[in-house]
Amino acid sequence: MTVTDGTSPVADALARLPRVVDLLAARAEEHDRDATFPYQGIEAVHEAGLLNLTIGQRYGGPGGTLADTVQLLAQLGRGDASVAVLTAFTLLQHAEQARNGNWPAGVYRRLLTESRRGPALVNTLRAEPGGRLATVARWDGTGWRLTGRKTFCAGAEALAWLAVRARTDETVPRTGLFLVRGDSPGIELDPVWDQLGLRASAGHDVLLTDVAVPADAVVGLAGTPAEEPPADRLDRAWRELALSAVHLGVARAAQEWLVRFLGQRTPANLTEPLATVPRYRTAVAEIEASLIGAEELLYGLAARVDRGDQAAAARSGAAQLLINRTATAAVQQAVTLTGNPGLSRRHPLERYLRDVLSGRTHLASEDVILDGIARTTLG
Description:
alpha+beta; Butyryl-CoA Dehydrogenase, subunit A, domain 2; Butyryl-CoA Dehydrogenase, subunit A, domain 3; 3 domains; eight-stranded mixed sheet; 13 helices; 8 strands
């Protein structure tokens, strides 16, 4: 990434955000309606230097922080939530590598090379149709062979790399992440993604049949396949706050559309726009106040996590719950205020509602979050 205005590479990339957001917003309705992958949008994010924002400085990257990341994703969420979600998963992979260096050096160097040449999306494939880990890695004497089916694989049709959670077929099975090139022989896409929202995110099923994985392309091979190992607290904080930022961006887009609508809409029984009616003004103020509170929580907590505040990282689950409740309520309130126009596909508000509801597929359920808070609180 090059610096063009004398600031840092991160600031320089973030300065390009408004143009990228406008481009995403212009194409979002088309991709949502047809459930087509937003290749042009991902390309724009990459060309602006945003898809590589969290590559660590030790790898020659800009080293974007969590505060930088949530700022970026909230803005992308205003343009196209699907592009924002796909960007988030790639940024999270690079950020985790910068902190922990889990990927083998040679494999990560290859990813970095591809990331310089063009968009290189990455995602971790964990979910399976039956819920239990059934994807199996078999040792063939020189490397591993993967066979299984993964579901809810965001970006499936365009992933450069797949980090596939699987168990070995050994007498005492081990689990780990097997790093697979997206164009490897034996990978097949089952285009089953037909969700209410985030329709352009291509969360299809991925079928793996005897896919070759080199011996040195495995991360964290240990333990048993009984359950998913608990995520590192810092990794969890990054994920929860990053994806919450996308939802907050969607809510901001809905609020901005609502303000324009009320300023332009003059019903037959009024002589001035709805924006002059006290009850509408009060409702808009309530939405604005709630979003300000959610933004302050998101950006403040992210900055504290960047400073190494462990207490802040431990609060990310509660923050995710509050931010997403706020974002969802704001969009629902906007739909209520606008009535029939808000639910018409002629306008983007109904898409914002579907996107903010569908984003829950990538987050821990409220029950899980609340149970964790209860256990901590009750000791």
